[in-house]
Amino acid sequence: MRNRKKKLRFIYVGFIMALVLLMIGGGYFVYAAMTAQDQKANDFQVGQVETKIEEVFNENIQEVNLDNSIEKDVSIKNTGTINQFVRVMVLPEVRSFINEDDSYVQILPLIIGKDLELENMDANWLDGADGYYYYIGSEVAPDESTNRLFESIKLSSSLSEQYHESDFSIYLKVETINCEESAFRNAWWQGEIPLEEPLKTIDNTLLGLL
């Protein structure tokens, strides 16, 4: 009789454990299904933030003479699905080859505004003094473009002989963000409100466009 009670108790405990596991398993399955469904809804609603650099530039130019303007008309097009704020970093690079076999390369400094001039910059672009130029003309709507960032470039005649026969390149780094106060502040100045110029003016101007 005692053995039978032990056996019944074991079966009862086993049944309860199986029921609990079934409930846990079923709850997990339902939660996973709800999560997947929510994720699909989010993916469907989120707009795309995409851009394209548009420029007018003669890629056949092989040599750049000092103090001569070269056409390079640059603007940014919104190829996404939502309005965007835009900023651009201009990165000039000069590579000087030391050895005749080009096995050793030296990177030479090139300072914008001193060694390199970006000519005819549009007034709707402001230099943030942080390496970026900010477009403050408007929110850039889908399929629309910014005003030109600059129209041409010119190397200073004061560059030394060290720059002679070196390779000169300009790289553009474009960053865009959706047009919300928290979005551009979090992405571009770590959630802080700029208190120093010129970022203070840029921040206030972008807020005024919302």
What would you note in describing this structure?
- With about 210 residues, the chain is of the alpha+beta class.
- The chain is about 30% helix and about 30% strand.
- It has helices spanning about 1-45, 180-190, 200-210; strands spanning about 50-55, 70-80, 85-95, 105-110, 115-120, 125, 130-135, 150-155, 165-180.
- Strands 3, 4, 6, 7 and 9 form a five-stranded antiparallel β-sheet that branches. It has a four-stranded antiparallel β-sheet with strand order 1-2-8-5, with no helix packed on it.
- The relative contact order is 0.17.
Unreliable runs:
1-47
Helix content: 25-40%
Please tell me how large the radius of gyration is: 30 Å
- Supply the helix-strand structural class: alpha+beta
What is the overall shape? elongated
Cα(first) to Cα(last) distance is 82 Å
**Strand count, sense and closure of the main sheet?**
5 strands, antiparallel
Q: In total, how many beta strands?
A: 9
Describe what is shown at a glance.
By secondary structure, the chain is an alpha+beta fold. The chain has three helices and nine strands.
